[in-house]
Amino acid sequence: MSERTSVDSSPKSPADEESLRLMDASGLLENEKIRTRINLINEEIKRCLLDENGDPPILYETTRHLILAGGKRLRSLLLVLCAEAVGGSVVDALPFAVATEFIQTASLIHDDVVDEDSIRRGVETTHKKYGRKMAIIAGDLLVALAIKLIGERSTPELLTYVAAGGIRMCEGEAADLLLSQDKIQSYTTDAALEIIRMKTVSFMTAAAKVGAMLGKADKNQIEALIKYSENLGYSFQIRDDILDIVATQNGTGKTVLSDLRGSRSNYVLAHAVERCSSKQKEEFVRKLNDGDLEYALKRISESRSVEESIEVSKKFMLKAKEAIRGYGFANEDLLLLLANFAMKRLY
Predict the structure, then answer these.
(1) How far apart, in whole angstroms, are the C-alpha atoms of residue 83 and residue 243?
(2) What stretches of 204-321 adopt beta strand conformation (E)?
(3) Listed residue (246, 208, 203, 199) closest to 227, CA to CA
(4) Which one of 145, 148, 277, 320 has the largest count of C-beta atoms within 10 Å of its C-beta?
């Protein structure tokens, strides 16, 4: 491993500290190896952003706002770990990891515009601080920067994998937005899982595949890492859906109950609606569309939807861990630790 992968003991910026605080809620950063890799990803993000200066300066300030505010860096960490698992270099994987963060952050900036959320990662959302139009352009710039990063170091095949994951993510966002708020059949756990597959799982599997291909993965190892990332994606997103219902704003650094307020797909909500009688379902959907969050939370509590969703998330987490056993991955312990992260914030 190169000199850049050594533990950096220098003081961290507020953005780095926020990233670590969000991760440390799970105990994941008790592992020094994980902490080192997240620090490296944060350093590379800052370097790449500072290398990019253009006109007008406000555009670049807007572009840096959210990504430098912190974040858990899960997708970029997954890419790095998958590369290392099969003999790849952390340094070689870093630009691709940063590109995934750029694309992910762009999607969050645009999501916040659509959902009209005001808080993300403990700071004002980009459109609240800089305006909707500049926020949209900043998201577009992040995507362009990601393409530049990958294009300078990649084969067409790897670029295609990243792009395909981004396409699926956009399709999932559109499908979520177009869910009919008036139709009971929109609120099913099957429909929620399909949205998760498109919005979350597709991009995580693309990150895992790129990481594996940067290393020396054979066909069986690539398939194992893809299966691992698929189950990890479901587990993580169901966990986030749970946190949207139960977490306080101070705990997550984001606007809470945003899924209920926006009538967006949420696994916990779908479970609660499914457990209702036909008449109750009609009332539930009507109350939800009227913005009656108290009623929704009451139904969620009565149906024990949070508890049931925790169990579903746990099952996906266990499947993720099982998917990578027996393949001789060099950092199996870290991949297992990342899977555990999906559950620890729920207890």
Answers:
(1) 30
(2) none
(3) 208
(4) 320
Backbone angles phi, psi at 120, to 5 degrees: -150, 130
Give residue 123's region: left, alpha or beta (phi > 0; psi -120 to 50): beta
- Contacts of residue 340, defined as CB under 8 A and 6 or more positions apart, other chains included, come to 26, 28, 317
pLDDT of residue 9: 35
Structure tokens at 209: 């595949």
For residue 124, the cross-strand partners are 119
Angle between helices 267-274 and 305-323 (to 10 degrees): 130
State the Cα–Cα distance between residues 112 and 313, nearest whole angstrom: 25
Q: How open is the CA angle 15-120-93, to the nearest 5 degrees? A: 55
Please give the pLDDT value at position 262.
56
What φ, ψ does residue 81 adopt, rounded to 5°?
-65, -35
> Which residues pair with residue 120 across a beta bridge?
123
State the pLDDT at residue 8. 39
As a whole number of angstroms, the longest Cα–Cα distance in the chain is 64
Q: What is the mean pLDDT of each run of 10 residues along the chain (347 residues)?
A: 36 44 50 88 91 86 90 91 95 93 92 84 90 94 91 81 84 77 74 92 93 92 97 94 72 57 79 89 83 86 94 95 94 93 65
**What kind of fold does domain 13-342 have according to CATH?**
Farnesyl Diphosphate Synthase (1.10.600)
Question: Following DSSP, what letter does each residue of 151-203 receive, concatenated?
Answer: HTT--HHHHHHHHHHHHHHHHHHHHHHTS-TT-GGGS-HHHHHHHHIIIIIHH
**Cα(273)–Cα(186) distance, rounded to whole angstroms?**
10
Task: Give exposure, 47-74, as e/b (b: 16+ Cβ within 10 Å).
Answer: ebbeeeeeeeeebbebbbbbbbbbbbbb
Give the pLDDT confidence score for residue 182 in this predicted structure.
52
Q: What is the pLDDT of residue 51?
A: 80
Cα distance between residue 301 and residue 233, in whole Å: 25
Please report the pLDDT score of residue 324 as a whole number. 96
- What's the rounded Cα separation, in Å, for the pair 179 and 114? 14
**Nearest C-alpha neighbor of 39 from the set 88, 82, 97, 92:** 97
Domain boundaries, the chain: 13-342
